[in-house]
Design brief:
heterodimer, A: alpha/beta, D-Maltodextrin-Binding Protein, domain 2, 3 domains, five-stranded mixed beta sheet, about 20% strand, globular, B: about 300 residues, mainly alpha, MetI-like fold
Chain lengths: ~375, ~300
Amino acid sequence: MFSKKRILAMFTATGLALSLMSAPAFAKEADGPVTNLGKCSSRNKIAYDAKGIEYKCSIAGGGLKWKKTGATQGSGASTSTSTIDTKKYANVSGSIKIDGSSTVAPLTGVAAEAFQKVSKTQITVGISGTGGGQTRFCKGELDIANASAAYSATQRKQCEDAGIKFTELRLATDALSVVVNPKNTWAKCLTVAELKKIWEPGSKVNYWNQVRADFPRVKMPLFGAGTDSGTFEYFTEQINGRPAKRSRVDYTPTEDDNVTVNGVKRSTGAMGYYGFSYYKENTDINKAIAIDGGKGCAEPSLENVLSGAYTPLARPLFIYVNNDQVKKNPAIIPFLEFYAADLKNLSEKAKFLPLTAEQTKKLEADLAELRKLAN
Amino acid sequence: MATASTSLESRVSLDRRIKDFTFTTFLSVSIVASLAFIFYIIYRLYNNAGFLLSWDLVTFFPSYDIDTAGFQSSIMGSIWVVGFATLFAVPIGVMTALYLEEFAGKRNRFTALLELNIQNLAGVPAVVFGLIGLAFIARGPLSWGFTVGSAAIVLAMLILPVIIIITREAIRAVPPSYKEGALALGATHWQAVSKLVIPSAVPGTATGTILAVSRAIGESAPLLLLGALSFVTFNPTGLDSGFTILPLAIFKYASDSREEFQVLASAGSLILLAILFAMNLFAILLRDYTLRKRNI
């Protein structure tokens, strides 16, 4: 029934059809800013123009286009901005298992990616949420757990009961951002009381004019963090009050903040909340609103977090390290050292707010304790 | 021949010819519709991400930087997991089928129970196998952790019933006269089975196995529970290694809020489709080859 000839014919036809379809794709490439850089044919290709300014071939608007990197020829700035000595990690090997908060994952992920390039380690970074990570961490399945909220007394007890001793490290600061669609021109600043009215359990607010009378009557689809998320825990505690984790339930919950970004992007009246780094990545499709927590309206930004004006949604981000694993797994300490040493650069890359000098000192002290434990 | 059929057809009533025409048209429309659907998907993906198709996709590892993000560790992860799953499932599946068809003897309560169980297993949703794997292999008695080994066993459980059923069909399709002839000439039961039944059943078994395996490659639900949805930038190095798989790497990129990563997800889907097509083509060629070899 399927002779070789027939199969060959089918594949030739498929190939022909595909190459016909590809015609528009190739045409798009030519539309890009044609300079003397040559063809932008593969990602991550570097080229320099006549003035020695560096360009990188990148994905943009359905094709590959040259993008300025800001560096100049010979400066080498684009390849590595980190100042730490990476050679000493070349012989570090072993595997590190990490899971937990999807808010912290980009930071730890960028660190893991960079560390694996300079060492022989294997690092997996999961995204099952602060709660999901904590469950695995307290079963002893993980070396490190990401957390976007400090573990509660119950969670700590779960670890203790399982005989897991751990160290808490504060690595970055987040400004939990409340976002709306860019087409939303009315909501610029909301008070905590107004947010509570929207998000409290049993809330009947479904249109914007129910929040404030001068807002238009536009439907308000809500997107938020799932119950396993540290973001959920922190947001509900700060907005709806203690005990944490009380929220209205008729919204779209997710452990993956990207889902919220896309949801808010697609609907004019939508509102959602997630970590600052996701906002920084998506300022063109989501708009953060200022929060009035009693000290006046403040937008989520580095200055407002450091000055304490962005209250109450500025929060610390943590990783938890399994103390016994530190003794058993020689890869953990070098990874943490690398993570801490390059933290400023990594935070910038992953768009997190860096630690203050005081917080950095605390981190170094905690790390020294861990190092003692390992020896 | 042609003239004979025309003269025959002319005697068929108009009413039946209309029925005949309607039915053929309906069949053609069905086949065109199903093909059009596949081609539409390929077209959409290609239009979206065709410009990305290059070896970069396969050689780059997953990354938070769009310029260096690719699929290498997930493709290797899929190959390792599915490869080991096949190694585990095929010998057990084929031997089970052989036992049930050739050596179990008359149907008794034991074989009836076995058969019922296999049929049921084939209908169990994939995610249930994932839960079993989580409770008994990754955690619990075996405690292998979220590794290639655990994932391979779970996928092996998933494809095992399919392989058993397909192999049994293939064995049943071997004409009984082959075996009867051999037995009449004084061959033992095992000689007849190993020299005649097994070789004749190879084409059917092989095709079925490859189809089962290509299902396993696209499967993501059970492995989701085994920690496959992770950021992994290294290829598996052993059964105890961490891993991710192609379908979940696609999912991770697709759910990223940045549009460039969504384009990358389309490119990944094209890779997955290409792998599936290649495997199905291989199954067809293998069947053709073994059939021809047997006929000579």
